[in-house]
Amino acid sequence: MTVLVTSQIDGTPAGGGEGPRLTSTNPARTREVVAEVALGDADLFVAACAAARRAQPGWAGVPAPVRGRAIGHIGRLVEANAEALARTMTREIGKPYREALGEVREIVDTCDFFLGEGRRLYGQTVPSEMPDKQLFTFRNPVGVVAVVTAGNFPAAVPSWYLVPALLAGNTVVWKPAEYSAATAAALYALFQKGGLPDGVLNLVLAGGDATYQGLAGGLAAGLVDKVGFTGSSAVGARIGELCGRHLQSPCLELGGKNPMVVTPSADLALAVEGALFSGFGTAGQRCTSLGTVLVHESRHDEFLDRLATAVSSAAIGDPFRDVLYGPMLDQRFADRFEEYLDWIQPHHTVTGSPHLGRIDATRPRPGFAGDPAEGLYYHPTIVAGLREDDAIFQNETFGPIVGVLAYRDLDEAIRLANAPGYGLSSAIYTTDPHDAFTFRRGIGAGMVSVNNSTSGAEAHLPFGGNGKSGNGSRQSGTWVLDQFTRWQSMNWDYSGHLQKAQMDVAELAADPDFRLTDPAALTDPAA
């Protein structure tokens, strides 16, 4: 029997009637149905925002350490259900099971970190310039947070929003990617069972247009105080524009064209290992996936040969086996990847696999794990000989494709790394500290790795990008609390009379004309 997944508002199923349905299938076995998804409309989204608004004062009134304990309960539940959640994820989006387990671990790490932050939502006591007066600062929740997330990390990335937002006393309306709805429903259930009151977390399943219209309606009605979005740069720009009309600053985590620089001193074996994982892990379907490798001209040919060998021998196929990557997340991403392959030009050199495009009987992949005809599997592709004006160089290519380009000196490498205008993640492989710090200073990315891949995050380190990759907001660690709280200052004057700042301030008299003459005179009592 096929499972029907519905929206959840105020702790009860919603929108499961006669509305549109979507069939969530396993991209590794496209004939296998994972769930039927009941899609809601814009009105359902607004109704979820209204439910969150009703629940928010009560949730904010729960002491922060108690809210932190709820986050701790959620972490333990996720940990206890890690294998089941990871299996659902692998079936629904084709992420290799080992990677899926790592993603679930990231939720646990996030909960563990923010469990303690419930006791550390500190303000400050600030000294006043006047007597008998005290100044204070407080962190207040923003109110209702609307979160829209992509499906390539259907559990970890939502937790980056949900956990700190809930801890800070906000209520949340969460709209996950509809093609990962079963994973979202499982994660929602684990959060609810952690002790959240009804209405504190609401799940809305909807298509893109309905979500945008619902978000617009919620903002216009004054029901949404903060928007968090993870997805493409194009959609992020539309959401940023919408929020700007309501004088709101959204938290935007968008795409990337993440560069890796390989210097003359680099350990090439390590650089190849990093390029293989960051370029082709999750079939290149990460916002932090490697876009272009910039290799010093003295190492270019050797690096390209080594990378081509590594990619050619990498295991690809059934995500429940030991593979580098499995299928594309969904048919829409397979179709888009086909468009990216059309950007390959005659001046490019293509390596990494014997064929381009979909892996099938006419374009086989040696050593493929399983039956490629069952799923949305694509050949890994390395494109060398890039030029700066190539579409492959300038744009995010969400899929298993990596570009390679030679550079002459580090200044040129930094310029090329910044040229596409994204600014999420970056990496440099070098044994020279001067190169590492010069790159850090010059790169526009929000995240820099030295001798490590462009992919990877830790729960206590800020995550986010600049330029086309985001608006400078950060997730993870204590930094994300600035997205989900607002600073409030308070002054308490108990002097019994009005003291006017900058006007009634006491001043201690100084003698500006004093000059030292004979230093010995300072110790002479008769002086």
From TrEMBL:
Enzyme Commission number(s) from the entry: 1.2.1.3
Q: Name one GO molecular function term.
A: aldehyde dehydrogenase (NAD+) activity
Q: What class of enzyme is it?
A: oxidoreductase
> Where is the sequence biased in composition, kind Polar residues?
1-10
Question: What does the subunit section of this Swiss-Prot or TrEMBL entry state?
Answer: Homotetramer.
Kindly state which keywords UniProt assigns to this record, in alphabetical order.
NAD, Oxidoreductase
Protein name (Swiss-Prot/TrEMBL):
aldehyde dehydrogenase (NAD(+))
Q: Where is the signal peptide?
A: none
Stretch list, region Disordered? 1-27
Read off the InterPro entries from this record: Ald_DH/histidinol_DH, Ald_DH_C, Ald_DH_CS_GLU, Ald_DH_N, Aldehyde_DH_dom, ALDH7A1-like
